[in-house]
What does this fold into?
Amino acid sequence: MTTTPVKEQVSKATAPGKAILFGEHAVVYGRPAIAVPINQVWATAEIRPASSGFEIRACDLGQVIQLETAADDDPLAAAVRITLKQLKRPLPAATLTISSTIPVASGLGSGAAVTVAIIRALARYLQSHLDDQTISRLAFEIEKLHHGTPSGIDNTVVTFRRPVYFVRDKPIQTFHIHTPFQLLIADSGISSPTRATVSDVRAGWQERPASYESLFDQIGQIVMDARRAIETGSWEQLGPLMTHNHQLLQALDVSSPALNALIAAAMAAGADGAKLSGGGRGGNLIALVRSDSRDSVRRSLEIAGAAHILVTWVKDNG
Ligand code: PMV
It folds into this structure.
């Protein structure tokens, strides 16, 4: 049963993409990870009054969903339902339109960004306020539908829109970026659902717990070292830490020949370090570059087959 809006106005919200700089996968097992918002790509949710029903239009996915008949585990419908439940509000008669410039299943947090944009737009539409902590907690519930056993890093960085040092089930920690640095984010063009790699890592961990725990520990140490390097402006340490992190992700079997070839191309062209970012097997890699190596690394990645390349500065305000 929907109610006809009386005073709701069109409301719109956006949420950025994100990149994990260090620590993916190990973060699911309690080790720290570092992630930053990527403001060049974003998801948008817009809600406008309708005469009846609640329709969700996800243009990029070619989906039109009627909320009242949507499955319980549909992440878009679930984001609407959980927000209404939190706000203790009935379903309004409205149309929710979602669009996103974040490539899906590529490690840039598109699922979390869409969810956070929906929660913010709906709260705004209903003229209610939700604080970031609550938005992140609600988005985490939806992440479980996307990923199975997420760590919570995506919803955290996308909601707070700040660089984060993230430890599962611990309060968010932000940290100071002493000297901004430049990254290239290159899309392998291979879509790879995070759920699959997360579940493969879990299977490997169950089979060989000691060796996986040791890999997670080594990744955790890299994350701590990277945080110190970022906070003190010891920029030159970051590249080797990235490359070492990638080797450990290879040992976890979440890289792929295509990602490894792109990373080799970036390194050969002068990147200071490079690694996959996010779930792996496909999706994006990140390469640390300087102003004088950026263009040659970019060209080399294009020649090696990168589908799309973003340049981003990592700095305090994201
Ligand atoms: O693929 P993404 O961008 O959703 O990143 C997933 C990061 C993992 O550590 C692999 C999973 C998680 O929930 O932290």
About this structure: Residues 185 and 310 are 5 Å apart (CA to CA). The chain is about 40% helix and 25% strand. The pocket of PMV is lined by residues 20, 24-25, 27-28, 107, 109, 147, 150-151, 153-154, 194, 198, 278-279 (CB under 6 Å).
